[in-house]
From TrEMBL:
It comes from the Eukaryota. The lineage of its organism: Eukaryota, Viridiplantae, Streptophyta, Embryophyta, Tracheophyta. GO terms for cellular component: membrane. The keyword Transmembrane helix applies. This is NOD3. It comes from Trifolium medium. It is a single-pass membrane protein.
Length: 93
């Protein structure tokens, strides 16, 4: 079940009388996080992935997949631990 709160005057569907629309869905959230190969970024990703897995394991969890988008242009040691997609860094400027 998903709850969406609408602002006054927004005509996007039927409401429950309190400005909240309830949508039944089985859709899952795909968590995507951008990261570098710096130590601090790796630490942040490890912590985030830990809490993602804890949340995903809860009954009725809406957590789907997790992807770390590594924009260093090369893999690192966390690729065996966290689902990772490697991309080239953006050019300077």
């Amino acid at each position: 079940c998903m709850m969406i709160e609408h602002k006054a005057g927004n005509d996007m569907g039927s409401f429950d009388g309190k400005g909240v629309e309830i949508i039944n869905t089985k859709a899952k959230y795909h968590v995507a996080v951008t990261a570098t190969d710096a130590a601090y970024s790796q630490w942040q990703c490890r912590i985030m992935y830990y809490w993602y897995k804890k949340s995903k394991d809860m009954p009725g969890s809406a957590m789907g997949k997790f992807t770390r988008i590594l924009h260093s242009g090369r893999g690192d040691q966390l690729m065996n631990e966290i689902p990772t997609f490697v991309v080239d860094p953006l050019p300077e400027g």
